[in-house]
Amino acid sequence: LSAVAQWNTDRIMDMGQNALYFSDYVISIQYFNQVIAIKPHLAEPYLLRANAKYYLGDYEGAIQDCSAAIERNPFVPRAYYIRGFLKIQNQEYDQATNDFSKALEFSPNDTTFLRMRIESQERAKNFEGALKDADQILKINPKSYGLFYDKGRLLLQLKDTLGAEKYLNKFIELENKSSMGWSARA
Questions:
Q1: Count of CB atoms situated within 10 Å of the CB of 52
Q2: 24: left (phi over 0), alpha (psi -120 to 50) or beta
Q3: Contact 113, 98 (CB under 8 A)
Q4: Terminal C-alpha separation, the chain
Q5: 182 Cβ partners below 8 Å, 6+ apart?
Q6: Contacts of 22 by beta carbon, 8 Å cutoff, 6+ apart
Q7: pTM of the predicted model, to two decimals?
Q8: pLDDT(3) > 60
Q9: pLDDT of 4 higher than 50
C-alpha cells in the first residue's frame, strides 16, 4: 500500500509540474495541494506552488510557500532565490539581498544569484556591494561584458564619473553596436 501511495504522490507531482509548464496555474496549485496534504514534509511541492502563485500575481502567497519550503529543507538555494526575487517585487530589497546571500552560501559561483543580488543591492542603494558582486561575476566569467556597463552605471550613482567612463569605454570597445553604452557615456 505504501508503494502505491508513493507512486501516486509522484504521479500527482508530475501532473502538477505539467500543468505548471502549460501555464495552468490554478490546476497546478490543486495538484500541489494534494501532494502537500499527503506529504506535508516535502519542500518541492511548496516551491512549485510558489511558482504558480507568482504567475497568478499572489506574491505574498508565493513568499509564504517559499518560506514553508525553506522550513522543510533549508538547503535548497532555489527556494531562497525565488523568495528573494519575490521580495524585490514587493520592494523589500534588503530582505531580497539576504535571501540571495543565503542562496550563494550553497552555490557561491552561481552568476544568476549574484546578478539578482546586484539588482537588489542597487535598488537598496548599496552600490558598493553591487560593485563587489559585479567583480565576483567577472572573476567567474570574464566574458560577461554587460557587467562593464553595469559597473559604469553603478559608479555614476557613486558620482565617480572617471571610473564610470573607464568601464563604459570598455563596454563600448567590446559591444560597439550597443546603444546602451554610448548613451550612458554621453
A1: 25
A2: beta
A3: no
A4: 70
A5: 172
A6: none
A7: 0.88
A8: no
A9: no
